[in-house]
Design a protein that fits this description.
single chain, mainly alpha, transport, MetI-like, MetI-like fold, membrane, 215 residues, cell membrane, transmembrane
């Protein structure tokens, strides 16, 4: 009834690409902002600009976002992936920034003295050291993207590109609800999140605590 394989592929596609690009782009942005905050007023303002977005509910920007997404033809899985990466930046930059502050600048200076360019310093020195925070961000992004209902509901227009959360609507009728089938489907949808949380919950707790260090 839910076309589970297709919806599972759609949800997995959005979630997987979101995690990959979120880790690469958000960690790079957080690293640049954190290292240059004290030297540049622009980067300091940029940090607070991203952090301030954490206090804006999605409901406030929902209707304007629907118009923009429709105008740019982003009401599909690729557009959803891009939006998840953007909307995840405030929290992820906050977490990554707290972690980057604990990495000694001397490591980067040594790499520069050895002839490394800025992008080499980040990808060969800093990026591997951020592995614990990568795990935390990946898990939080997975849980948010996989469980999200509101954004796909208002943005996805093609039924064949719907996610698993939207597919659960099929059990809700005008006069009745198939509770036995609905709850069986709910368990299948929740299973990946529960399994990931059980095995990786220590990374979530330790990563959030580490990334929330006050600067």
């Amino acid at each position: 009834m839910t076309d589970f394989p297709l919806m599972f592929r759609n949800t997995l596609f959005i979630t997987a690409w979101n995690i990959i690009f979120t880790i690469i782009t958000n960690s790079a942005a957080a690293y640049a902002i954190t290292r240059y905050r004290k030297q540049s007023r622009f980067f300091n303002l940029l940090y607070y600009y991203f952090i301030s977005a954490m206090f804006i509910p999605f409901n406030v920007i929902m209707l304007p976002l629907v118009r923009e997404v429709s105008a740019f033809h982003m009401d599909n899985d690729f557009g959803m992936t891009f939006l998840y990466i953007i909307f995840g930046m405030p929290l992820n930059i906050f977490l990554y920034s707290g972690f980057v502050k604990q990495i000694p600048v001397a490591l980067e200076e040594a790499a520069v003295m050895d002839g490394a360019k800025p992008y080499q310093v980040f990808f060969k020195v800093i990026f591997p050291l951020m592995a614990p925070m990568h795990a935390t961000v990946a898990i939080l992004s997975f849980m948010w993207t996989w469980n999200d209902f509101l954004m796909p509901l208002v943005l996805l227009s093609d039924p064949k590109q719907q996610t698993l959360q939207l597919a659960q609507y099929v059990f809700q009728g005008q006069f009745s609800t198939n509770y036995n089938l609905a709850f069986a489907s709910y368990v299948l949808v929740l299973a990946p999140v529960l399994i990931m949380y059980v095995f990786f919950q220590r990374y979530i707790i330790s990563g959030v605590l580490t990334g929330s260090v006050k600067g």
